[in-house]
Amino acid sequence: MDVAEVIVPLLLPLIAWPAAHWAAPRLPPPWASWLLTASCVVLTIASTAALVVPVLAGLTLLPAIATADGVSPADLLDSGAVSIPLAAFCGLALAVLAISAWRSGLRYRAWFRALHTELDRHSRDGGVIIVPDREPVAFAVPGRGGRIVVSGGLLSALRPRERSALLAHEAAHLRLRHHVFLGAIAASCVLNPLVRPLGGTARFALERWADEVAAHRVGDRRILATAVAKAALATRTAVSFAPGAAGGHVPRRVAALLATPRPRSVLAPVALLGMAVVLGVTAGAAGTALDSATDLHADIEIARQGLCPPGGQETMLGQAAYREAAFVAVRQQNRQCAES
Question: What average pLDDT score do residues 41-57 get?
């Protein structure tokens, strides 16, 4: 197995990020949110699969598995299908990532339970909970019908129309189910830390999506921009796991709200270019992972030929350059062995 087949899917998120960072402000926020979130998920699946395949290849060397699969471990090693150091490295990496994912899941569950326990103590007025806290904070909480949490400290810093704009932003997060997007992004970033820059851009797109929905509802982009800026300046502590008005790259969000919206006809070519680059990199990662799995299957079939019943024609154990041809030959020979 080629080391590049493992390294390339791991590094492709870093290649996708510059294109995504450039394209995200130029794409309609809903498009950018869906595209970048899906890219995070697919790139993470591809990188995880790239780590799993060498581990599976290494497991085929175990006598019990090799015998059950009809494969000679010696033939697998000779064919280059299995690299013991690579399998050990990938196994260690998967173990570290699994532990990290488990711990993140436990932290989220503890945060979710503690938050709802605390919120249940407060009265709920129209889905909005006002906590008597001087610390300025505002965020949307999924679950139990969805709730918007705003502190008294933040409300006192905003004017009435700015409060309405801020609540419209948080309501948009709940209505559009952005917590599902954020959960997928967070899981992707845990399973492949190199996805984090792309995940940050995806979170920015989600905030821009909520901004545009809120601006349309309020009818005044400047009021919303002022509310977002004030909330960001007043907030000193970010709330984990929950979308909020002070999240994302606030200066870029405010600039986008204050800028004159460009017609979609102008953005279309740019949007298509950005989408093509990100989708191309994502498809490349998925293709590389699929090729790794296909190559492993071919190598196992080639190695299995060493245990073919007598009477069949001997097949040369393949090197990488001849894998495809050898695989076809092995499949033909297996049919001959079955017929004889």
Answer: 87
Side-chain-facing half-sphere of 336: CA atoms under 13 Å: 14
Q: How far apart are CA 235 and CA 247, in angstroms?
A: 10
Strand order in the sheet with 147-151: 128-131, 147-151, 138-141
How far apart are alpha carbons 305 and 214 in whole angstroms?
A: 64
Residues 262-275, mean pLDDT to the nearest whole number: 61
Give the β-pairing of 138-141 and 147-151.
Answer: antiparallel
Structure tokens at 128: 């909005």
Predicted local distance difference test score (pLDDT) of residue 280: 75
AA identity, residue 287: G
Distance CA 153, CA 132 (A): 8
**Tens of pLDDT, residues 138-166:** 888 887 777 888 888 888 888 889 999 99
Domain boundaries, the chain: 4-334
Are 90 and 51 in contact by the 8 Å Cβ rule? The answer is: yes
CA pair distance 46, 40, nearest whole angstrom:
10
Residue 265 tokens read as: 């006809």
Backbone angles phi, psi at 328, to 5 degrees: -65, -40
The answer to whether residues 166 and 149 touch, using CB atoms and an 8 Å cutoff, is no
Cα 46 to Cα 215: distance, rounded to the nearest angstrom: 37
* Interaxial angle between packed helices 250-258 and 196-218, expressed in degrees from 0 to 180 and rounded to the nearest 10: 40
Q: Are 209 and 60 in contact (CB under 8 A)?
A: no
- Judge whether 165 and 227 are in contact, CB under 8 Å: yes
C-beta separation of 245 from 142 below 8 A: no
Helix (H) or strand (E) holding 102: helix 84-119
Both tokens of 286, joined, read 């998925």
For 3, which DSSP code?
T
Cβ-count burial 15-38 (b if 16+ within 10 Å, e if not)? bbbebbbebbbebebebbbbbbbb
Query: Across all residues in the chain, what is the average pLDDT?
Result: 77
